[in-house]
Write a structure and sequence with these properties.
Layout lengths: L6 H9 L5 E2 L10 H5 L5 H7 L11 H8 L10 E5 H13 L5 E6 L4 H9 L2 E6 L10 H7 L4 E7 L11 H14 L2 E5 L16 H4 L4 E5 L11 E6 L2 H11 L8 H12 L1 H25 L4 E2 L8 E2 L2 E2 L4 H12 L1 E2 L1 E2 L10 E4 L5 H14 L1 H7 L1
Parallel strand pairs: 1-12, 3-4, 3-5, 5-6, 6-7
Antiparallel strand pairs: 2-8, 7-8, 9-11, 10-14, 13-14
The protein binds pyridoxal-5'-phosphate (PLP).
Length: about 375
């Protein structure tokens, strides 16, 4: 299987640990091991005693049990734990797809959601969220894209990079359509529980559709990317078994300390999500104000969920803008070209505590570079 370089990850590899201000991160503010252990008395001692042998390949039973609380209909045997969401995407595609299969993917998107299917030799069609529709997807357009041989539909809601959230009637209609046509649905739900309006939270795909596979992770909503614990939840026994068999060739099992810490974190997931949502809401108010004052330079579509959005730079080329910004001010934004998006958009991330300082740096950069950017127009 040939996989093209992961543009976004290569961009981050260049700047993530050298740029002073990360203003495009998709994960929420993290915690230290000490912060996490302080959530429960006795957790510190329990970690000291935690055994460092191999763990169960599907994930520790107690961790899988904790993960089932996120869902309505899922049992521990229907949860398969991985090293991050990324491993789960790779194994899911390999388990589900054959060369020549037709796959429809919600786009723009996190690259692996279509790249792995392409690498396997599938025909990939994009189902595009468009800025003129506030990044919403159109079900009629999907019906036109689907073919009799479509094997898989991949969606991501809440969405990276736009912060779009599918309306509930569309989500239910989409699940019904997939069931009616026998199309497998893979729903990347790594930003779930970060809806700004709790009433807009969607059910998990695995709860409403017996063939669907839901993807979750500790990295985003709970801010614990360094644990590298992700999972799939599904009632689809065939896909589950195939993924479990493939995992024997990748990580075999997960890191024992990470499983311990992930389980502890998930016991407190409501508190972790609420803390991160509060950071997001405060920072989002600053961004609303910033984009209102800078409407001559940027177009802002307010996201509906999650820690990221995809505004448009109205003057100048977005790659050069991001490049100048990071080199002159140490502020990292992610140009939309890393998603191969042809618009002049960039990803902004606002779930970090130092986001107000990053925004101040961006403002200063804009004030100092007004003429440069206009000249580049
Ligand atoms: C939509 C989406 N899916 C999956 C992933 C991969 O998550 P992880 O890095 O925790 O494996 C990301 C990471 O940015 C993402 O944004």
């Amino acid at each position: 299987m040939y996989l093209s370089p992961f543009k976004l990850e290569r961009y981050f590899a260049k700047y993530e640990f050298s740029a002073r201000y990360l203003l495009c991160s998709s994960d929420c503010e993290s915690l230290s091991v000490g912060d996490l252990l302080a959530l429960e008395s006795g957790a510190d001692e329990a970690l000291q005693r935690h055994w460092l042998g191999y763990t169960e390949s599907s994930g520790a039973p107690s961790l899988r049990k904790e993960i089932t609380r996120i869902y309505d209909s899922i049992t521990p045997e229907q949860v398969l734990v991985h090293s991050g969401a990324q491993e789960a995407i790779l194994l899911f595609m390999q388990a589900a797809l054959q060369p020549g299969d037709h796959v429809v993917v919600h786009w723009p998107c996190y690259q692996s959601l279509f790249e792995v299917a392409k690498g396997i030799g599938c025909e990939v069609s994009f189902w595009e969220g468009r800025v003129e529709n506030d990044w919403a997807l159109d079900l009629d357009e999907l019906r036109r894209i689907l073919r009799p041989a479509t094997r898989l539909l991949v969606i991501n809601t809440p969405h990276n990079p736009t912060g779009a959230l599918m309306p509930r009637p569309d989500f239910l209609a989409l699940n019904a359509l997939c069931q009616e046509l026998g199309i497998l649905l893979f729903c990347d739900e790594v930003y779930r529980e970060l809806e700004y309006d709790p009433a807009s939270r969607l059910p998990s795909a695995c709860d409403v559709n017996p063939l669907a596979v839901s993807l979750g992770v500790t990295s985003k909503t709970y801010g614990l990317a360094g644990l590298r614990i992700g999972w799939i939840a599904t009632r689809n026994v065939d896909i589950y078994n195939r993924m479990a068999t493939l995992k024997d060739y990748t990580t075999i099992c997960n890191s024992a300390p990470s499983e311990f810490l992930a389980e502890l974190a998930l016991r407190h997931r409501a508190a972790l999500a609420a803390r991160n949502l509060q950071i997001i809401q405060c920072n989002l108010a600053l961004l609303d104000d910033f984009f209102a004052r800078r409407a001559d330079r940027f177009a802002w579509v307010r996201p509906k969920a999650g820690p990221i959005a995809f505004p448009c730079l109205l003057k100048g080329d977005v790659e050069s803008f991001c490049d100048e910004l990071v080199h002159e001010s140490g502020v990292l934004l992610l140009p939309g070209s890393m998603y191969d998006h042809p618009g002049n958009h960039f990803r902004v991330g606002f779930a970090r505590q130092n986001m107000p300082s990053a925004l101040t740096q961006l403002e200063q950069f804009l004030d100092q570079n007004t003429t440069v950017v206009v000249q580049n127009k």
